[in-house]
Amino acid sequence: AEASRHDEVAAEAALELALLIGVVQSRTAEGMLLVRAAEAALVRMGERVELRTRLLSIKARILQQQGHYSEAAAALGESLQLTETNLAPGHPQVAELLTDLAAVQRAQGHPKAALELLLRSLALSEKALGPTHPQSASTLEGIGVVLYILGRYEEAEKYGQRVLAIKESTLGAQHYGLSVPLNTLAMVWLI
User: Fold this and answer.
1) Which of 144, 124, 147, 146 is nearest to 136 (CA)?
2) Angstrom distance (rounded) from CA 56 to CA 142
């Protein structure tokens, strides 16, 4: 793609690889090289908002894994602003970015700020996608974990039960995706 100057394809490919290598495989140095390659392609072809917001989100996830939380928060903030301005304030991608930003806040030791972001994300995803959508369930899961961290165990249990019900109905009772809500419930029940 680069040799023939198909910059959009090069940017998309670099971002897919950055996500896979830098985030999923936690090979963050290589992931950041791919992010830079995508940035170079974006510069050559001119800005495309959807690619820029995706690039910033992937970059933030890599930065978070590296422990660079303030840089991750800045990248997510920029991505959030671009998304809200160019898509719509209630777009599901806004909810996803709020959830990612909440994860950074939680990692920095700010569970109350994380909870506020997660509650905002949940309202958006439930309105746009429905209360049983996987993105809504993922946000509910994050809320349960943060409530546990805050010592609000009864509330954490309610969210954990809700996530478990959603995931059991969509994934089945034996699916590995039930491990996080079951773990959250187990922690609450041990208190």
Assistant:
1) 124
2) 22
CA 98, CA 87: separation in Å to the nearest integer?
Answer: 15
* Phi, psi of 173, deg, nearest 5: -70, -15
**Tell me: the pLDDT tens digits for 50-78?**
899 999 999 999 999 999 999 999 999 99
Residue whose structure tokens are 């495989």: 25
For residue 114, the Cα-to-chain-centroid distance in whole angstroms is: 12
Name the residue among 171, 145, 166 with its Cα closest to residue 156.
145
Q: How far apart are alpha carbons 70 and 13 in whole angstroms?
A: 27
pTM of the model: 0.86
Q: How far is CA 165 from the centre of its chain?
A: 22
Spatial separation of the C-alpha atoms in residues 162 and 157, rounded to whole Å: 9
- The residue with tokens 């992010």 is 35
